[in-house]
Specification:
This protein has eight helices and 14 strands. The protein has 286 residues and is α/β, with parallel strands linked by helices. The strands form two sheets. The chain has an eight-stranded mixed sheet with strand order 1-7-6-5-4-3-2-14.
Length: 286
């Protein structure tokens, strides 16, 4: 006959094991608000795209300007944000100045986990609660749980994925950190590629987009992570982008002044400049 102490010990051991198994299961199971998307092809063209630079550390006029980057993108079918800069206040102020209403934003794409690209989410949750926020799958639990706690629905992306008509996320590359980019396919133009910081190399991002979507690039805008880079690296990056077929290059945020100087002086037909408040209209409504 089993003694009382032995029975208590046995039941306690079973309970502890059950709790450990439950904990492990919960760790492996994604939260209800976290989704994983599968790659989908092909990407079909849309007539036009409008891109508004809501934040950039390259100042212009009396727009607010923080270190970081954020774009509002409008297509015939969608309105969304690519990155949110560090401050929602800056986005809201600049959006109003541009005649834009951020409550119309349908979803948000985040390039990578750094605060100068994600910080604006904190002040947008009240307005955009429940909207999908696409993040790199390698960004980690800390970012996804923080975004969920703000009231958004997190969607993790690994491979290049079409998320809406004419719009694809370019699957993550490792910089570090893990970083994804965005491509919009405009008919009679090609891919319009938006980058956050390009930690994995802007030329590698453009090459990946071109190969996986089988569409030629037209324009690339965003941070190129070349501030303080050597002259040879900057010139090599420009050469690779041109070899890939890029027609317009707009280096902003962390790209540095030197690449802007080289492009403006040697490739003026390619250089697109860039700053907070910039509006790009590409396609039939140019």
């Amino acid at each position: 006959m089993i003694g009382r102490k032995t029975l208590i010990y046995f039941l306690t051991t079973i309970l502890i094991l059950a709790l450990i198994l439950t904990y492990i299961t919960l760790l492996k199971k994604p939260t209800e608000t976290t989704m994983q998307v599968e790659a989908t092809y092909p990407l079909k063209p849309i007539p036009y795209v409008e891109i508004y630079v809501l934040n950039d550390n390259y100042e212009y006029d009396d727009f607010l300007s923080d270190w970081g980057v954020s774009f509002l993108v409008r297509t015939p079918n969608n309105t969304f944000l690519f990155d949110t800069g560090p401050s929602a206040y800056t986005l809201l102020y600049n959006a109003e100045k541009l005649g834009l209403n951020l409550s119309n934003v349908e979803f948000i794409v985040i390039s990578h986990s750094h605060g100068d690209h994600t910080g604006g989410l904190e002040g947008l949750g009240w307005m955009l609660k429940g909207r999908k926020v696409y993040i790199p799958s390698g960004a980690g639990y800390g970012l996804s749980s923080w975004i969920e706690n703000l009231g958004f629905e997190v969607v993790k992306v690994h491979e290049t994925t079409v998320i809406a008509s004419g719009i694809a996320i370019i699957g993550e590359l490792y910089g570090p950190p893990w970083e994804q980019a965005l491509a919009i396919y405009v008919e009679n133009k090609g891919l319009i590629i938006l980058t956050g910081c390009s930690h994995p190399g802007v030329e590698n991002i453009v090459e990946k987009a071109t190969k996986e979507l089988n569409i030629k690039p037209y324009l690339v805008i965003g941070g190129f992570h070349l501030a303080g880079a050597s002259e040879s690296r900057i010139r090599n990056t420009i050469s690779k982008l041109l070899a890939l077929g890029v027609k317009k290059i707009c280096p902003i945020h962390c790209s540095g002044d030197r690449i802007r100087e080289i492009l403006a002086n040697k490739y003026p037909e390619v250089y697109g400049g860039g700053h907070v408040g910039l509006i790009l209209k590409i396609g039939k409504e140019e």
